[in-house]
Design goal:
Layout (H helix, E strand, L loop, with lengths): L2 H11 L4 E5 L5 H9 L4 E4 L3 H15 L3 E5 L1 H7 L1 H9 L4 E7 L15 H5 L5 E4 L3 H16 L5 E7 H5 L19 H12 L4 E5 L6 H14 L2 E4 L6 E3 L7 E2 L4 H8 L4 E5 L23 E6 L5 H11 L25 H11 L4 E6 L8 H4 L5 E5 L8 H11 L5 E6 H6 L3 H7 L4 E7 L4 H9 L7 H5 L10 H7 L3 E5 L2 H13 L4 E6 L1
Parallel strand pairs: 1-2, 1-3, 3-4, 4-6, 5-6, 7-8, 7-11, 8-10, 11-12, 13-14, 13-15, 15-16, 16-18, 17-18
Antiparallel strand pairs: 9-14
Helix pairs in contact: 1-2, 1-7, 3-5, 3-15, 9-12, 10-12, 13-21
The structure holds thiamine diphosphate.
């Protein structure tokens, strides 16, 4: 067996059985090994940002890392923006990056680069394999590292001669460490903060936004009277009917500080002290009020269910019915011209049970959450790292991770253009993704940010940097060019019709929402 086969067998034997790839010459032995080994689903992405973003989406829905196969420093470099997003979302990924054969490096061939240097900022763990004999062992460590709570980016650089040289075979990965329980002192401090009789908020992040942990948070809120809130961007939160309703902190600084105003005790469970996305002249960086005390119950890598169960026990909430559980109330389908409120109503009315909403709608969907609380139960995924071009790749990976669920990608047109090649992978793999592109022909959010920064009214040149209307992008043509059926909606009635059409099929469909 050669090193490449030992690596692929190590991945598969240890339960890493999806590989998102964009290979080159230095990875040809790995590509050949994919044929030798059963049990690996290989998915080609036509740009590395698709590959790494898909691995992020896959992890968010499965809790299990996928592998990526990337070509040298430039291939990895192309994938970095979505590795950044994945890192901020605590998604585990095993990156396999090809490298020139060890003896070829000194010749400084065209594709030679400092791959470890490229990898380091967006990885928790980086290693260059020394030999074909040790490659499988390195891969096993990478898998273990990627699975370490709360999910890590492990990047293994594999020189070509470690792929084609001999190996003794695959290696078993050690189990990742269990999530740590929180200390009882943290639980008592959090309980004291909530029971002090001051206006209190329990801010949830990470796995606290799902399943039993979320339900426990609802019990604690019912018992203590604290408010529940989530960070603005969350890796995956369970929303809709039957779930404890948690509003997201607003994006805009003034709205966020208003939402937190009056809070004197902030207890953090998997969330951080909220900070503004950016600094603005004359606005605060830290969003919580100055007279508010923050208490950390648990960090995102802790066992959040255990932490919330211990807190619920301490405040006597274990049997209190959870607060804020919504019942299903689908709105009537609205008619007339497209408005953002109307779009939210159509979405809430037609959302299928257990849909996965991948939200890169940027300015258009900022307030959709208000309407979704009483929609059918669903998961909502946000861009954690703020590096746009995340949504379509993540929808691709989420659809592969959860093939029985409908994925709905909400995309700003500007964001969608970064990784539009995802549509081709969706078509090729027949992924069940409905994409709504909010075609406002602008970087709309930045038009607002120009004003927020006090930078004045845009002149022609500044406006040109923020508008996408010259020429107008034809999303129906783009989708079809990638092998995906598409339609256009210019009214709310057309949007409902288009959504019904997209939801009725199994496979990708794009709707250009003409704003
Ligand atoms: C990789 C990267 N490049 C640039 C930006 C800056 N940026 C933030 S939002 C945005 C425009 C988003 O446009 P669109 O998706 O159409 O949404 P809209 O603002 O119109 O709602 C840009 C360019 C970014 N966040 N990430």
């Amino acid at each position: 067996m050669n090193g490449a086969e030992s690596l692929v067998r190590t991945l598969v034997n240890n339960g890493v059985n999806v590989c998102f790839t964009n290979p080159g010459t230095s990875e040809m032995h790995f590509v050949a090994a994919l044929d030798q080994v059963d049990g690996m689903r290989c998915v080609l992405g036509l740009f590395e940002g698709v590959v790494t973003g898909a691995a992020d989406g896959y992890y968010r829905m499965t809790g299990n890392p996928a592998a990526t196969l990337l070509h040298l420093g430039p291939g990895l470099g192309n994938g970095l923006a979505n590795l950044h997003n994945a890192k901020k979302a605590n998604s585990g990924i095993v990156n396999i990056v090809g490298e020139h054969a060890t003896y070829h490096l000194r010749h400084d061939a065209p594709l030679t680069s400092d791959i470890a240097g490229v990898a380091r900022p967006m990885s928790h763990w980086v290693k260059t394999a020394a030999s074909s004999a040790s490659l499988a062992h390195d891969c096993a460590v990478a898998i273990q590292t990627a699975r370490e709570a709360p999910g890590h980016i492990a990047t293994l650089i594999a020189p070509a001669d470690t792929a084609w040289g001999p190996s003794a075979g695959p290696v078993e990965a050690a189990p990742a460490a269990q999530r740590q329980a929180v200390a009882s002192t943290a639980v008592s401090a959090a309980a004291a903060a909530l029971m002090r009789g001051e206006p209190a908020m329990l801010m949830l992040g990470g796995a606290a936004l799902r399943g039993k942990a979320l339900e426990l948070a609802g019990r604690i809120a019912a018992k203590t009277g604290c408010r529940l809130m989530a960070e603005y961007n969350n890796a995956r939160m369970e929303c809709g009917a039957g779930r404890v309703r948690v509003d997201r902190l607003p994006y805009a600084v003034d709205n966020a500080t208003a939402a937190l105003q009056g809070t004197r005790q902030l207890v953090l469970a998997g969330a951080k002290v909220p900070v503004a996305f950016f600094a603005y002249p004359d606005k605060p960086s830290v969003l919580m009020p100055e007279d508010c005390t923050a208490t950390v119950l648990a960090e995102v890598g802790h066992d959040l269910e255990q932490a919330l169960e211990a807190l619920a026990t301490e405040v006597g909430a274990l049997r209190t019915p959870p607060a804020g559980i919504a019942t299903l109330a689908r709105p009537e389908l609205p008619g007339g011209g497209l408005t953002l409120e109307g779009i939210a109503m159509v979405l809430a009315a037609l959302l299928p049970e257990q849909a996965i909403v991948v939200d890169e709608s940027v300015s258009s969907g900022r307030n959709f959450g208000a309407m979704m609380g009483t929609a059918a139960p669903h998961d909502w995924l946000n861009i954690r790292g703020g590096s746009i071009g995340w949504g379509l790749p993540t929808a691709t990976g989420a659809a592969i991770g959860a093939p029985d669920r409908k994925v709905i990608a909400l995309e700003g047109d500007g964001s969608a253009m970064y990784t539009v090649q995802s549509l081709w992978t969706m078509a090729r793999e027949n992924l069940d993704v409905l994409v709504l592109v909010f075609a406002n022909s602008a970087y709309q959010i930045l038009r607002g940010e120009l004003a927020n920064m006090g930078a004045g009214t845009p002149g022609r040149r500044a406006r040109d940097m923020l508008m996408l209307d010259r020429p107008v992008i034809d999303w129906v043509a783009l989708a079809r060019g990638h092998g995906v059926e598409a339609g256009r909606a210019a009214t709310l009635d057309e949007l409902a019709q288009q959504m019904q059409r997209g939801l009725a099929r199994h496979g990708p469909y794009v709707i250009e929402v003409v704003l």
